[in-house]
Amino acid sequence: MITENGHPISSSPREVQAYMKEANERLLGYVEFPFRTRLSFRPLIQFWKRKRKSAHAAEALLAREIIAKVEAHPELLEPVDDYTLLETHRGTVELLLAGLLPQALMDRKLTMISKPFDLRGIYFSPSLQELMQTGSVSFGVGKMDDLAKAISLTRASSMVLNRFYGQQVKIDPAFIFTVRPNDSALEQYYKSDLNIQFVEIVKRRPLKELSQKDINRLLSNIYDQRLWREMIPPENFEFHGVVRSNLIDVTEEESLSRLKYKLLERDAVVNRENILVLQQILRSYFQIQDLRLGLTAIDYPVENSVAHKYKIRHDFLADQHPNLLDPENAGSSYEKVCRFNDTLIVEDLTQVSNPTPIEVDLVNSGIRSLIVSPLTDERNRIIGLLELGSPRADTFNSLSLLKMKDILPLFCIAIERSREEIENQIQAIIREAYTAIHPSVEWKFVETSFNLLERREKEGPKAVAESISFDEVYPLYGQADIVGSSTVRNQAIQADFIDNLNRIKEVLSLAWEHLDLPILHQYLRQADKCMRDLGQGISSDDESRVMEFIRTEVHPVLDQIRYEKPELARAVDRYYECLDPVLGIVHRERKSYEDSVTKINEVIADLLDEEDRRAQRMLPHYFEKYKTDGVEYDLYIGQSLLKQERFSKIHLRNIRLWQLLLMCRITRRMAELKPTLSTPLDTAQLVFVYGSPLSIQFRMDEKQFDVDGAYNVRYEIIKKRVDKALIDGTEQRLTLPGRIAIVYTAQKDRLEYLEYLEYLLDQDYITPEIEDLALAEMQGVQGLKALRVTVKI
């Protein structure tokens, strides 16, 4: 059991020494520790000398025998650098170590004897040897592996402070050994318990003077190795003696600690990768190699919940059941857990009486033994479910509940925190995407809400919120409208209906050959008539009439044909396969059109959002876009919209020029996009210039801003009709593909925008031709004029 020259004698396998060498370098951080350490039995011999006068006869007898042998070999009184001496005096050394190594316990104790601050031991207990040979071993210092080197140096230095400077510093980190047997996925953790009572510090040089201020500085910087080595030079001291290290199994405690640490991480229960890490930790905690972990966030009762709302679905049946608590799964294990708000243990799922689809699917997915626990918040509301599963029956039982009590609170906290973070993200999206509370004016809503709270304290609950309005703001309106969208849409509907009716005629004609049913001939004639009518054009009445004919008259007949004539079933099935599964009609051309419109709207909207983020940095303003057949937007800018910044006319001119540059970008982007569309479509861009400031007010009923005051209503009227404007004296539309129309009401606006157009021309955004146009009178609107330019593609 005693090593020779740092190498193991036969009873200490070479692998154990290799592990200890690795540990020495990783934990202590040095192949050679900065303090000189020497194996010395002197402190141990002093111990036995004192025991010669022990009141216990057996102890005194042993002590006298040990001292007699030592006195016969005085070389053992000196530090041992040549380990061959240990083998020479094996019997005496083993007697010396008897007090540290009670033989009755050695078969069970994980014990090692070494010199100070060195894990390359001179003795390993049989149990420790066996443990080290079972599999791979790694080392760490709790959660601070990267600080291990500094800790080891600091620990030695703190012993110097205590011995020579009258301090009482205790730096005793727990060295954690991780053992994973080669044939197992389980990890076991062991903590080192050191006995250093037989270590003495030898001073080799005069002590360096240290004030209490110096010592306090050291203690405030325990990881600063340079400072510690400067204040307490390692070359001034040596550590002599022997150290006994006992390894204590702390697998359960360490697993629990690692679980806590992992669950503190952001997205600890959101990402699948993190769930797998947690699963591995729980395998060590329960010492179950094939344990599986499942976790899901829910709201219970389900009537108050939104499916997948929290993005935390890592339960065993996530891919098979959209909702574990669906009413069709009433009586399932999960439903019982929620109903009684208590943990459920199923020792063998195959033995469950009256299993629901949940239990059946669990067994089919490889789960035999199951624990399901509710995760609750501070008000004991169920916010999630924790699952532990195993493919082996009877893996879990009532004893498992004892361990569950320690981990459930950790998962409750983690899932509640993740739910709150996700909920905040959802609320931010709702606020931005579904309400008109734009970030630029949110300050006004906060201010108004605070005022309302103060008024309710004084006036009671009947106090109402004051209206939110902004005066003297300048409007900018723009649109990118899909050219001829109604015509293209109608053509798509016509094409789909004609295709649909032709397919109906094929099936009815085939059926007419096999069935003597005059009604089939009647439907054939009706289909022909519908096709002739569609050839003349289509109205909304035509659309609903043809739709009703196909779905409510023809389809029931086809179903009957399939029932009565099985040989015609394949023809009927082929027809149905051509239909949209939701609408129940042919929907190819219209879907192509709708997909193209959606793509155009998305691209323009993304471009608007991107550009507006840049414009908001210039000066905050209110901006809102709307998707129709194309995209239109409103922008308002002015001093009343600002909480702190200062508005000037230069900002107005800047944002107007920015708008024109934006419309040029949209025009060019649409030209690039057109070849990629399933239905080629064009857009025409328009800007409406309104030179006078106006007031806008938030309409609570519509949850959006609108112009305020009778005078300002004219702006809204023009804005809604201008895209249909014709050039005066012609039938030509103002808006054309590839061009930007700038509609204005005052000559000063025309002159201002001509300056902007000169800049665009200089920057090669537009062609030289600038059209100066008068617009035809529209209902309630007259005197409008426009500039029109062509964008260079």
Q: Could you explain how this protein is built, in words?
A:
The chain is α+β, with helices and mostly antiparallel strands and 793 residues long. It folds into 4 domains: 14-180 and 188-247, no CATH class; 253-429, GAF domain (Beta-Lactamase, 2-Layer Sandwich), CATH 3.30.450.40; 485-586, no CATH class; 592-791, no CATH class. 44% of the residues lie in helices and 18% in strands. The chain is built from 23 helices and 22 strands. Strands 14, 15, 16, 17, 18, 19, 20, 21 and 22 form a 9-stranded mixed β-sheet that branches. A 6-stranded antiparallel β-sheet has the order 3-2-9-6-5-4. Helix 17 (518-535) packs antiparallel against helix 18 (540-564). The longest helix has 34 residues, at 400-433. It is elongated and about 130 Å long. Residues 1-13, 26-31, 140-146 and 303-308 have low confidence and may be disordered.
Concise description?
By secondary structure, this protein is α+β, with helices and mostly antiparallel strands.
